[in-house]
Model the fold of this input.
Amino acid sequence: IGESRPGLFGGMNNYDARGHKVGESRPGLFGGTKHYDARGHKVGESRPGCFGGITHYDNKGRKTGHSNRGIFGDWNHYDD
Done:
């Protein structure tokens, strides 16, 4: 359990339950989001998918899952 707080230039900083930074997410060049660990190493990315969803990839470009909006505006996450 942790939280994400807005960072610079549209990014998000991710923290664990103790308040230690565990990573960050930054906007990508073509509309996706790139994810990094606390040391700045890329750990994956998320790209817009079909029908308004989001497709998730690991740091080697392999698909790991996807997310779709639920009926009430929340997100449903699935592992592939």
Summary: DSSP finds no helices and eight strands in the chain. Residues 18 and 59 are 26 Å apart (CA to CA).
